[in-house]
Amino acid sequence: MQSTENSHLIGSDQKPPDGWIGVEKEYWIFADESVQDGSYFSNFFGGCIIAARQHAEVENRLRIRKAEIGFLKELKWQRVSEPWLNGYQQMISSFFDELRGGGVRMRLMFRDNRDSELQLSRKQRDESYFKLYYQFAKHAFGLAHIPTQQDGPRLRLFFDQFPHTHERVAQFKAYIAALPLNKDLREKNLKIDLSHVTEVDSKEHVLMQCVDIVLGAMAFRLNNLHLEKPKGQKQRGKRTLAKDKLYRHILTEIRTLKPHFNPKISTACEPFPEGNWSMSYRHWLFKPKSSLK
Fold first, then answer.
1. Three-class HEC string of 221-241
2. Among 221, 220, 238, which residue's Cα sits nearest to residue 229?
3. Record's superkingdom (predicted)?
4. Is the pTM of this model over 0.85?
């Protein structure tokens, strides 16, 4: 993530909006993953961070909005269809209202398949899943730039259920719990208890469902799935058209926060490097410093 572009987002000399995550005793991260083997871009990870004391209020607002629109089931990118397009657009706008308010911040990470450092075998790809997820949790939310306080903040991490064995999941959780020992984070006195690194059912968390939609939309568009046509047909299907329209709606919402946003590259950080922590939305094209093999 590099700083190459100006932004109208909050800087150190500006007054933060209501709900701004400043110095808090505890933060919660909700994380999810999407397409791991796309045609052009792969390993999509997404998540949002929120102050613990604000979570119930934000989640409740989104639950109410979801009910008002008429959604009875979990919001998922795979369920987007023409009849529900307007409803999904409304939910996305409500989610970005929370980002604009400053109480929630979203991060998304993915990689370009052309990156020669990550041309991995099937076994290596399987192992890289958790290695990349670890990089996402460690760097995407800007924890190294968390506001300093005498008694460091607590952090809880909630991951959507992993499609892996209990042994591998347990090992990953242990690595996450050990994040505060990392040299980049040690001075922040961050506290992560192993019991606070948990798997959750996304059906119970609307915030996580909203992340899934944004994540799915980016994987869809960056892999050119919006151009797909049913076999033997000359026109795109109705579901594909609906998803493309929802992606465009998401793009418009992101650009209210980052006017020059380009979905194929990392979002410029302003201010730098504190914006890694403070910006409402950040998009990270992962480029490893060394091979994950």
1. HHCCHHHCCCCCCCCCCHHHH
2. 238
3. Bacteria
4. yes
